[in-house]
Structure formats: structure tokens, C-alpha cells
Amino acid sequence: MNLKHLRYFVKVAELGSFTAAAEQLHLAQPAVSMAIQKLEQTLEISLFHRHDRQISLTDEGRELLMHARRVLMAAEEAELAMQELSGLKRGEVRIGIPGMLGSYYFPPILMAFRHRYPDLQISVIEAGTRKLQQMLLSGEIDIGVIVEDSAASELEVCPFLREEMMVVMADDHPLASCERISPQDFFAQELVLFKEGYFHREVINRLLKETGLQPHIGFETNLIPLIKQIVKQGFGISTLLQMVIRDEPALVARPFEQPVLLDLSLAWRKGGYLSRANRTFIEFLADQIRQ
To answer: Where is the HTH lysR-type domain (predicted)?
Structure first.
């Protein structure tokens, strides 16, 4: 099979359109159609149902899509490995980080890494930990920050941070006078929460499962500045890491009655190729933790 034809096939399958795939590939639409026809002739199967102007994958097409993605990922890794050996390409770190850590924990680390290795390119993707796991497995990123206890079996993990999730409220909120907050008192309040898929929300879902309580959700947003403003104005309370409100005198953080601890890890695909740039970043972060 021709790798180029496989790339065209994957793009058409993902977009559901020969025309859209041709535009993204910067090719003429007939060239893409011809490549798919040649692939079908080589395999002696039909990959797409073609009806009017719509297409959909056949059973054989769905099976090939799974294998084609793996083949293309392996080919890209092999090419990168050879480029590194021959010194043809400067390194790139592709890392996915949840927004809370990306805004408050990683900036000094990323700047220090960039200062030490100015020739390495750093690409940072912001997403929830669930989405980051999917991106790792699909090869969209090389390293991701995930919650350790939810790691997929296909991933290698390197623990690097344990933090306590805190109840955050305005300094004049009635619960601000408490030393610790019970789940019952927390869930009785109007809540400002991250959307599903972020570790912040997974902590809440875990507490709900353990206690059987029902939440009162007033706002859902992944925008940390908005969460802090809503909480400051007294329209709800939330849970955040202590580092997020370190310079916010109008906000206070209180622990839960039973500490809610979060174990975070760097993760990458088992058996996948890690470039020298990515290995260097992992080693750099490990050195920072030991200091």
C-alpha cells in the first residue's frame, strides 16, 4: 500500500468529503478521488459508500481506518527518528496541559526549559485530562498531563505533582469562617464548575459518587478568570488549587473535611517513539521536581 494514498484515505474518512479533504491537502479533488480508487483497486474492496454527494465508510473502510492511523503514526515516528540521527531537524516538544496548571504551574518551567534549550520548539495544547489522553493515543501530542489514577493502560506515566483541591469562596462568604468544609455544606451552595473532562470536574464527580449528594450548579466554564470573578461577587463557590488564588486577597481557600488529593503525571504512549526533545523535557521536569 502507498503511504500517500493512506494519508488521503484517512483525511477523506475524517472529514467525510473528498472536496474538503482535497482542500486541506492542497490538492485537486480529482487527484484525491483517483488515489482512493487506486487504493480500493489494490485492496480489491470498496472503502466508501457513495450516494449523491454524501459518502460514508463501508465496514472494510472502518477497519482500514483503524490500521491506517497506526501505520501513518509509525511512519511519522520512524521519519522523525531518522531526522534526529542525521541532524536534519531541530527538536519539538508537543505537550498537552490542563488550563489550571498551564496558567499557574507550568509557565516558569516552560520558560526555564526554553532558556536552557533555545533551539527547541515548544507547542502547548490546552485541554482537559480526558481529551489529552485521547490526543496522546492518537499521536496528536507527544506528552500530556493527566490524573494518574485515570491513566489508560496504553500510557506510560511519570508522577510529578501532588496537590490538594481546595474549596474557594469570597472572603465574606459564611463558610469562610470554617477551618474545613464538609461535602454536605459544599454541595448545598451554588457552585461554579469546570465542564466535564477536566480534573477539576472529575474531583467533584468523585465526591458526588462517594456521598450520593446532588449539586447545585450555577455556572459551568473553563475560564479561570471568570470563575474567580463569579466567586468574588458571591454568586457561587468552587474548587481550585491553592496556587490559583495565591495573589487574590478577596478569595479564601479551605480544605475539605477529608483532604481531596490530586496526583498528576506526565504521560506518553507505551512503545511510542519519544524524540530527544521530548525525552529532554521529561528529564528537565524531573530535575525541577528534585530541586
So the answer is: 1-58
